[in-house]
Structures are given as C-alpha cells and as structure tokens.
TrEMBL record:
NADP(+) binds at A156, W172, T198, D202, S224, G296, Y297, K298, L299, N300, G301, S302. PROSITE patterns: CYT_DCMP_DEAMINASES_1 (PS00903), CYT_DCMP_DEAMINASES_2 (PS51747). Its cofactor is Zn(2+). It comes from Roseateles aquatilis. This is Riboflavin biosynthesis protein RibD. Keywords: Hydrolase, Metal-binding, Multifunctional enzyme, NADP, Oxidoreductase, Riboflavin biosynthesis, Zinc. Pfam families: dCMP_cyt_deam_1 (PF00383), RibD_C (PF01872). SUPFAM superfamilies: Cytidine deaminase-like (SSF53927), Dihydrofolate reductase-like (SSF53597). PANTHER family: 2,5-DIAMINO-6-RIBOSYLAMINO-4(3H)-PYRIMIDINONE 5'-PHOSPHATE REDUCTASE, DIHYDROFOLATE REDUCTASE FAMILY PROTEIN (AFU_ORTHOLOGUE AFUA_8G06820). GO terms for molecular function: 5-amino-6-(5-phosphoribosylamino)uracil reductase activity; diaminohydroxyphosphoribosylaminopyrimidine deaminase activity; NADP binding; zinc ion binding. Residues 1-121 form the CMP/dCMP-type deaminase domain. It catalyses: 2,5-diamino-6-hydroxy-4-(5-phosphoribosylamino)-pyrimidine + H2O + H(+) = 5-amino-6-(5-phospho-D-ribosylamino)uracil + NH4(+); 5-amino-6-(5-phospho-D-ribitylamino)uracil + NADP(+) = 5-amino-6-(5-phospho-D-ribosylamino)uracil + NADPH + H(+). Pathway: Cofactor biosynthesis; riboflavin biosynthesis; 5-amino-6-(D-ribitylamino)uracil from GTP: step 2/4; Cofactor biosynthesis; riboflavin biosynthesis; 5-amino-6-(D-ribitylamino)uracil from GTP: step 3/4. InterPro entries: APOBEC/CMP_deaminase_Zn-bd, CMP_dCMP_dom, Cytidine_deaminase-like, DHFR-like_dom_sf, Eubact_RibD, RibD_C, RibDG_C, Riboflavin_Biosynth_HTPR.
Length: 364
C-alpha cells in the first residue's frame, strides 16, 4: 500500500478534479505484477493502468492481490467502472486504503467486488496509510462530503508577522526554497485565489512555475467592483480568469474583461461585497478540490472571519520588519478568548525559512 500511495502522489497536478489514486498488483509471493496511477480526467484510472502494466509485462493477475488507495469506482462516468475491470481480470483480493464518499460509489465498489466473490478489505481509519490516503485526497473528500473545496491560505511573513513594508514592497521576504515549496502547494490546487488589492499592487501571474506540472490551477479573483486592469497578468493565458464580483450588471468594464477571456460571476452579499462563502461553494460545483489562497491581509481577514479556511500555510523568514502590513485583519478583539486558535500539523525548515501548517482547533 505504501507503494500505491507513492504512485498516487504522481497524480498531483494531473488528475483533478478526479482523486489521486495509486494501484499495485502483487502475486502470492509479493512480487509486483503491475502498477499505475490515475491519469488526466477522462483517461484511465489507477486500477486500469495497473492492469495494463501487468499485461505489458506478460503477467497473469488471476488470484492476485490488488492494493489501491481509494475504493474502486462503481459507476460509468467518462470511463467504465474499475470494480468491473478488476472482476473481469480475476483478482483474488482487493485491499483499499480509503472508502470513496462520492455518492456514485460510497461502498458500491466494495459491494460489487464481494458479490463477485473477491475478498475486499478496507484499512482501519486510524491506520497510518489510511491517514496518508485521506491527506492526499483531502480536497476531493471535502468536495464530496461538504460540497466545497478544502481551503488553504498561504502567507509569507517576517518573524514579527509582517507580509510587506508599509509601502507595499514584499519581494522577497522568504528565500527561493520557500517560494519553490509554495509553488508545489499551488500545484496541488484546482484553483488559486487572490484579491483585487494584490492584483493591483503586485500584478501577479498566480500560476505554477517553480515546479513541473501538467495541469495549471484555475486562477480566481475576488473583485467586488471589477477594478482589475484589462492588462493585468492574471488575464494572460494559460486558462481563463474567473472573477467573482458584486455588481448587479458588469457593464462596460465587464465586457472589456470578458473580451480578454475572463469569466464573470456575480455573488453579492447585502453590503455590496462578494459573498465569499458562496464563491467557494461555486468553486466546489466547478470541481475544485483544493483552493489555494494568496491574498492580502484584508481579504485574508475576511476569509478567516467567514469561517471557510481549513488550513494555514505560513512561511516565516528570520527577519524583523517593524512597521508594515500584517498577515490578517481580524478587526479589534476585546478578549483573548475571541482569538482563533490553531494546532500545528507540521513544521519544516526550508533553506533559511520555516514552514508551518496549522488547522483550526475547531474545524471550519
């Protein structure tokens, strides 16, 4: 199963919106007969890739044990059901790291395997490899179970919590290793979101450049009044920019942006701002599993106050800036009990910087 999980990781930046799945087929002596991982959406799933690999090696898989990181699918979408492929191949046993919460599967894959006389087992939920399988597909699970992406907010800051000088200069607070790691997290995401303040001041591209990827995440902008410049780098390919705004009609500014390839969606709240929770739900409906946020302190604060952020990804540089821009704007708290509290998921040095991953003590 550990090998299957390593294969599943190769589907990062490739398989979205489908889950990242790996599969290894072994004989009674533990010899690998075939292996594979999920390909791009509409192409072969991990089980089929492993069966093809076994066939290419000249191996007979009848009676073999199949290790797969997610329950084999039981529905006919863009590809046939994987449980049927395993049954037709004569697999003797299937071991699954994680059940699939997709309503089109949800135990049906296991049931069909067992009905065909194939032993089908699921790892205990507390098993370390089951935990790893959940983490690898945490966004897919979130979309299936909650109807929205897993939301990760990335912040790069100094030791005193400053993300930029008072004049807005922020390049670069962290070093190249931390920036490369940040791009690896972008690569995991189905979409990368920023706000109009960052778009105006930094003119970012918000694509993946520092690591290799076959699939670029969708770029998303929160821009209540459609103030983005038609010449902004966010409008430059690859892909179309998705802009959430709060105007009843986009008007001439909207037509100009649409001509530049932007897709405009109005999701307004009564105060005339973008309804952030509605925007994130819409991203889930569009198949976004993981949403990566790189925004300024004002939008960061709004997102945190709306309760949609599942994880903080913070890079701390060993410097002190003093007066400057903070990480988030939460408004004035009157008691420490009002402060959001987090638990550290992991910490890791990256070059001269420190990366922290944190999740709310009370999940979003």
């Amino acid at each position: 199963m550990a090998r299957a999980l390593a294969l599943a990781e190769q589907a990062i930046g490739l398989s979205d919106p489908n889950p990242r799945v790996g599969c290894v087929i072994v004989d009674g002596r533990g010899q690998v007969l075939g292996q594979g991982h999920t390909q791009a959406a509409g192409q072969a799933h991990a089980e089929v890739m492993a069966l093809r690999d076994a066939q290419a090696r000249g191996h007979d898989v009848r009676g073999a044990t199949v290790y797969v990181t997610l329950e084999p699918c039981a529905h006919h979408g863009r590809t046939p059901p994987c449980c049927d492929a395993l049954t037709a191949a004569g697999a003797g046993r299937v071991v699954v790291a994680l059940g699939d919460p997709n309503p089109l599967v949800a135990g049906q894959g296991l049931a069909r395997l067992r009905a065909a006389g194939i032993a089908a087992d699921v790892l205990p939920v507390e098993h370390p490899l089951a935990v790893d399988a959940r983490e690898l597909n945490i966004g897919f699970l979130s979309r299936m179970q909650r109807g929205r992406p897993f939301v990760r907010m990335k912040i790069a800051a100094s030791l005193d919590g400053r993300t930029a000088l008072s004049n807005g200069v922020s390049q670069w607070i962290t070093g190249p290793d931390a920036r490369r790691d940040g791009h690896a997290w972008r690569r995991r995401a189905g979409a990368v979101l920023t706000g109009i303040g960052t778009a105006r001041e930094d003119d970012p591209r918000m694509d993946v450049r520092e690591v290799e990827t076959l699939l670029q995440p969708r770029r998303v902008l929160i821009d209540s009044r459609l103030e983005i410049s038609p010449e902004a780098k966010l409008l430059v390919p690859p892909g179309r920019l998705l802009v959430y705004h709060a105007l009843p009609e986009p008007g001439e500014r909207g037509r100009v942006l649409a001509d530049r390839g932007a897709e405009l969606v109005s999701v307004a709240e009564p105060r005339g701002k973008v309804d952030l929770a509605a925007a994130i739900r819409d991203l889930g409906q569009r198949g976004v599993n993981e949403l990566h946020i790189e925004a300024g302190y004002k939008l960061n604060g709004s997102l945190l106050r709306s309760g949609v952020v599942d994880e903080l990804l913070i890079y701390l540089a060993p410097m002190l800036i003093g007066e400057g821009r903070g990480m988030v704007d939460l408004g004035a708290l009157t008691a420490l009990t009002q402060a959001p509290r987090y638990r550290i998921v992991d910490s890791r040095p990256l070059g001269g910087d420190l990366r922290l991953r944190l999740r709310p003590e009370v999940p979003a």
